[in-house]
């Protein structure tokens, strides 16, 4: 069985140590391209003080679903000490300060109670309560949630966004938020042995698998943005992908299906 890997990465931020080659930042989410500045207004960078060195590092993405709440992946949370984390909303170039950013501490972390660190079992979702509410602006806004148990048809085009690696070998990370259209692979296809087999649950969404476009390390926790009913909705949270090259044919990026967890989200937020 193919090994699953989380799509977490450590990327140094402005005034931080940069662990990737800065000359490699002119590539493109894998197969993507630069997003327009502050178009995906709910996209946040989840950052952690990893080494008690005064620096915060981008580890995952996330989405603002309320002024005080961010949804991300459970596997992004390696410690429940909320003081280690911060959220940056209104971010575009992760290595530059433009004045649109809102840097907000985290007050409380709630990981889904059934998460057991086994990606194939699902429940890869967590909520962060912010220490102070995010302020709505031209660069920061909330994302709509899907309808309960809403499922999208095979081939439906959504967008994946994030600051994850833009190539696996050698590793290269972008400075600017990346975006790419990505097509949904319905469960009946993704759960076949040629694809993800029994690792793909109905509480997950598969998207991609064309060998070109995929999420990668650093995109974990970020959104699968889908325009339904004329509004952008958060249909997925980046969960896992294949070991090795991220953009493998028939091994799409797998997202936690948000519509399966609305009752839990509402009970927490």
UniProtKB/TrEMBL annotation:
<keyword id="KW-0378">Hydrolase</keyword>
<protein>
    <recommendedName>
        <fullName>Peptidase S1 domain-containing protein</fullName>
    </recommendedName>
</protein>
<dbReference type="InterPro" id="IPR018114">
    <property type="entry name" value="TRYPSIN_HIS"/>
</dbReference>
<dbReference type="InterPro" id="IPR001314">
    <property type="entry name" value="Peptidase_S1A"/>
</dbReference>
<feature type="domain" description="Peptidase S1">
    <location>
        <begin position="29"/>
        <end position="269"/>
    </location>
</feature>
<keyword id="KW-0720">Serine protease</keyword>
<dbReference type="InterPro" id="IPR001254">
    <property type="entry name" value="Trypsin_dom"/>
</dbReference>
<dbReference type="Pfam" id="PF00089">
    <property type="entry name" value="Trypsin"/>
</dbReference>
<dbReference type="InterPro" id="IPR009003">
    <property type="entry name" value="Peptidase_S1_PA"/>
</dbReference>
<dbReference type="InterPro" id="IPR033116">
    <property type="entry name" value="TRYPSIN_SER"/>
</dbReference>
<feature type="signal peptide">
    <location>
        <begin position="1"/>
        <end position="16"/>
    </location>
</feature>
<dbReference type="InterPro" id="IPR050850">
    <property type="entry name" value="Peptidase_S1_Elastase_sf"/>
</dbReference>
<keyword id="KW-0732">Signal</keyword>
<dbReference type="GO" id="GO:0004252">
    <property type="term" value="F:serine-type endopeptidase activity"/>
</dbReference>
<keyword id="KW-0645">Protease</keyword>
<dbReference type="InterPro" id="IPR043504">
    <property type="entry name" value="Peptidase_S1_PA_chymotrypsin"/>
</dbReference>
<dbReference type="GO" id="GO:0005615">
    <property type="term" value="C:extracellular space"/>
</dbReference>
<dbReference type="GO" id="GO:0006508">
    <property type="term" value="P:proteolysis"/>
</dbReference>
<keyword id="KW-1015">Disulfide bond</keyword>
